[in-house]
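Technical annex, item 7. During the second reporting period the consortium partners agreed on a shared format for inverse folding records so that results from different sites could be compared directly. Each record opens with the tokenized structure and is followed by the designed sequence. A conforming record, contributed by the partner at site C, is shown below for reference.
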């Protein structure tokens, strides 16, 4: 729901970097997933999208022929059905750049290609002390707030600072192929 809500907000404030996209998910007899679980999950996803308003409802494709109408060259062997859901495709680079520009306009300092060696929070001074290497030069900074925008590497950055009780990010393997 949070993800759907965020994409809805982004669609309103930055329509130039996000667009709706149909996702066709084929279901094969040989898949590990129970087809009914996929159908139920799709309907639940649709309910969440509906609660945000103005979203197309998911569509269940019963049988091989229904799926092949959408993707004619799909391998028909063991194909038993599919689902269509609507999501969004975001230009991630433009989103990150816009976010950084907005933060800088609000007084933040942002560094690209900076290796965070370590950081720590000084509770007496109520500031973060950050040690960074940029252009082969070591630099130190202090800040009242620190945003770790390390993406999938956030846990590695936290580990360098001896921060954290376990991982915040659990990698997920998956892919979307746009045809």
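Designed sequence (site C submission):
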């Amino acid at each position: 729901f949070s993800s759907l809500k965020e994409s809805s907000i982004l669609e309103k404030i930055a329509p130039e970097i996000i667009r709706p996209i149909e996702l066709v998910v084929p279901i094969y007899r040989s898949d590990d997933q129970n087809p009914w679980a996929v159908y139920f999950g799709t309907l639940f996803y649709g309910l969440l999208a509906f609660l945000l308003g103005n979203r197309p409802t998911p569509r269940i494709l019963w049988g091989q022929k229904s799926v092949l109408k959408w993707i004619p060259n799909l391998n028909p062997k063991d194909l038993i059905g599919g689902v269509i859901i609507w999501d969004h495709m975001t230009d991630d680079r433009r989103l990150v750049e816009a976010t950084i520009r907005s933060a800088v306009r609000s007084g933040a300092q942002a560094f690209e290609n900076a290796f965070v060696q370590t950081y720590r929070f000084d509770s007496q001074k109520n500031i973060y002390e950050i040690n960074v290497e940029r252009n082969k030069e070591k630099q130190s900074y202090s800040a009242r707030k620190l945003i770790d925008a390390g993406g999938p590497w956030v846990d590695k950055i936290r580990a360098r600072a001896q921060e954290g009780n376990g991982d915040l990010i659990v990698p997920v393997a998956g892919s979307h192929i746009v045809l």
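The first strand starts at residue 18 and ends at 28. The chain has a mean pLDDT of 87. All partners now use this format for quarterly exchanges.
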